[in-house]
Predict the 3D structure of the following.
Amino acid sequence: MAVHVKRAYEAPSAEDGVRVLTERLWPRGISKERLAVDAWLREIAPSPELRRWYNHEPEKWDEFQQRYRRELQGPRQQELLAELVEKAASGALTLVYGSRDTGRNSTVILAEVIRERIARKDR
């Protein structure tokens, strides 16, 4: 059971397992073949309003994390989270994102939430 995050511009590998794009927008300049994702879950990404508010401004990171975690409490997001936890339970799961910032993006938060759910499930 492994949850990885990988930038869309990195080459896919066999260790990735199931690859899921977790962005509302398709990464620029990448074909479907090159991205090689098994699913695209647009609805799990932050809302357009939250994305615009954050605007990848590092000083907003802490607040962005809190706001995005609140959005993940929505009914549809909870369904999608359950799907992702199930995928992770059956093997490697790689969440694919397009952001240039590898440490401060919504997919990093999403991976943390999935890992937290798996840890609670395993207790």
In short: The mean pLDDT is 95. The chain has one domain: 3-122. The CA atoms of residues 61 and 104 lie 7 Å apart.
